[in-house]
Amino acid sequence: MTRITPDAVRVVRAELLRLAVVFAAAAGLSLTLGMMFPVQFALDTGGYRDTAARSHAPIEAVADAEHHLATQLPGERSMMISEFATDAAAHGDRFGPVSLWVLLGSHPDPELTLMPDATRVAGAAREPGDLGDWADISADLAAALAVGPGDDISIGLTPTTDVTLRVRGIYAVREAGYAGAAILPVDAIERHAPHVETAPTSLVTTASPDRVREMLTGSPWREALLAIGYPEPFAVSDVGDLLTTREGESFIDLSLVLTLSGIAVAALLAIVVGETIALVRTFRDRAEILVELGAPPAGIYRTLLLGLAATTALGVGAGAAVGTLAYAPGFAGPALPPSVSAVWWLAAVACVAAGTGTAVVATRIQRKKVLA
After folding, report:
1. Which of 181, 201, 250, 348 has its CA 20 to 30 A from that of 266?
2. Per the UniProt record, which residue ranges are transmembrane (predicted)?
3. Hey, how many other C-beta atoms are within 10 angstroms of the C-beta on 91?
4. Last residue of a domain, which of 196, 219, 249?
């Protein structure tokens, strides 16, 4: 009798195998296709949403700039940058336009850029104070030039000067108006191209736009900006407003993103639940035979339940994992943003839970019918 109970799985082994294949295919296709638009939306908006900066403003070089920022914006994180449009090259190919942010100062803070760590999809976590020969790049740029962490990339500084650096990290972000983006420390330029001028052009800070605007109208910033012909009032951008604008400019709106991803997850759930119920119903006649042979009904259905739970977890998990590979070569997008990845795996876990829960209810019902 003890050997009969495992037959509860053995007699539906072919059906369980088919079920695993169906779940894997459903999970892979549903998540890959259903998340394509959410991925693009996250790429378009992620940098603006996750950056620590609240304000972006014009700035001009002054003596003791870091000291002035620390005293005039106390308690805030601030960084001056030199930003301009350029291009990049690797393996003999060039790609652009690329937005380049050169991080200035003795303690650059990448979290104030559009490449915060929350958007990192490849490469090691940043080490504080790392002023080495590195560049962090966007996923679009990495995909276009087929480079990854540790590879070399050449970034144009002038029409005749490139600097070749090591790719440190890849980030699932996009900056409006550019095909790619990159950030690097000014120290790398000073080591490899000291003749290239890297004067500050912008300020990014956690301070509010009103505080930054008030600071810029005082000394020494006002005089420096007026000296280069910058008109008053000085334009200070609210990063929150930039995010709203970027969401509006994205080729797909948030409501459609939520609708499509919701449909994809609902479809996958429906397949998992429906197929589980169908298999349990199919098992009824075979269960009756096993009971007649002396197998305990509780043991039969307990074993079937374990088999269904394992099959659901294996099938959905494998399908979800295979689906993520669509973003590795750039078929469905240049990268799977962390925000979408979290939803992706939560959906997979929800489907496994739903399938297991359905199996519990269905096996209890069928067990009662067999014993009736």
Report:
1. 250
2. 16-37, 254-280, 300-322, 342-362
3. 10
4. 249
**How far is residue 233's CA from residue 242's CA, in Å, rounded to a whole number?**
19
Name which of 30-34, 105-109, 181-185 the model is least confident about.
30-34
Average pLDDT, integer, range 21-38 = 85
* Residue 331 DSSP class: S
Strands (E), 53-92: 55-58, 78-90
How many residues in the chain? 372
Instruction: Write the pLDDT tens digit of every residue in 72-81.
Output: 999 999 999 9
- 204 DSSP β-pair partners: 56, 79
Same domain, residue pair 80 and 216: yes
Give the whole-angstrom CA distance, residue 172 versus residue 50. Answer: 11
**218 lies in which domain range?**
52-249
Q: Which of 185, 214, 249 is the last residue of a domain?
A: 249
pLDDT at residue 160 greater than cutoff 80: yes
Q: Clarify whether residues 136 and 207 are in a common domain.
A: yes
Mean pLDDT over 233-249 rounds to: 92
Residue 47: per-residue pLDDT:
96
Using one digit for the tens of pLDDT, what is the confidence trace for 187-205? 999 999 999 989 899 999 9
Return the biggest CA–CA distance within the chain: 96
Q: What is the number of structural domains in the chain?
A: 2
The β-bridge partners of 202 are 58, 81
* Concatenated DSSP letters of 221-288: HHHHHHHTTPPSSPP-EEHHHHHHHHHHHSSS-HHHHHHHHHHHHHHHHHHHHHHHHHHHHHTHHHHH
**What is the rounded end-to-end Cα distance, in angstroms, of the chain?**
21
Q: Flag whether pLDDT at 372 surpasses 80.
A: no
Token pair of 328 as six digits: 């590795």
Please report, for residues 88, 100, 152, 153, 170, the alpha-carbon distance to residue 91 in angstroms, rounded to integers and kept in the order given.
Answer: 11, 20, 9, 9, 18
With beta carbons less than 8 A apart as the criterion, state whether 170 and 328 touch.
no
